[in-house]
Amino acid sequence: MAKKSEAKSNKIFLGIALLFLGLLLVVPSRQTTTVDSFASEPVRITGLSQEKIDDNKIPRRVLIPDIKIDLKVGKARNIEGYWEVFPDKAGWGEGSGLPGNKGNQVIFAHARQGLFLPLRESKVDMRIYVLSSEGWYIYQIEAIKEVYPNQTEVIEATQDETLTLYTCSGYKDTKRLIVIAKRIN
Predict the structure, then answer these.
(1) Does pTM surpass 0.85?
(2) Which stretches in the chain have pLDDT values below 50?
(3) DSSP codes, 54-101
(4) Contacts of 145 (CB under 8 A, 6+ apart)
(5) From CA 131, how far away is CA 47, in angstroms rounded?
(6) Comparing C-alpha atoms, which of 136, 131, 130, 134 is closest to residue 164?
(7) Distance CA 70, CA 49 (A)
(8) Are strands 90-93 and 103-108 parallel, antiparallel or unpaired?
């Protein structure tokens, strides 16, 4: 009878251990540190425009109604080759494209609740709305992919008007989720 009881206890312990391990794998990890720039993530930016632009033309808001993203966008300055990252809003990468113009406008945010975490639910053909002082611009998602942090070609300049949304993904944020959209209006 003692062996039967011991075997039952072992099965219960094993079941609890497997349940705990499963939760560790399923529940996303939470970042507890505030990142001041992509230098610690790392995304080195090179080859983007260095010309002075009118700050009124930069994006002010990004909206994706289908996945409940509605964020203010701030100008993320280039600090020693890295864009600064905001803890409470999206950033438009200084030197990237502008709404209504040829080029790759890059908007990024942390993969946290209230920021770009819902971007993981995006789908091809969803619409993205970007507001600047000149009005709303509508883009449609054409591609979604994951890349490693050193694959910075996704933020390079483009010959057409492109919107690139960028956030962390993968196990312990070791990859980057990239959403590429083209203007439709």
Answers:
(1) no
(2) 29-39, 42
(3) -GGGS--EEEEGGGTEEEEEEEE-EETTEEB--SSSEEEETTS--TTS
(4) 154, 177, 178, 180
(5) 26
(6) 130
(7) 27
(8) antiparallel
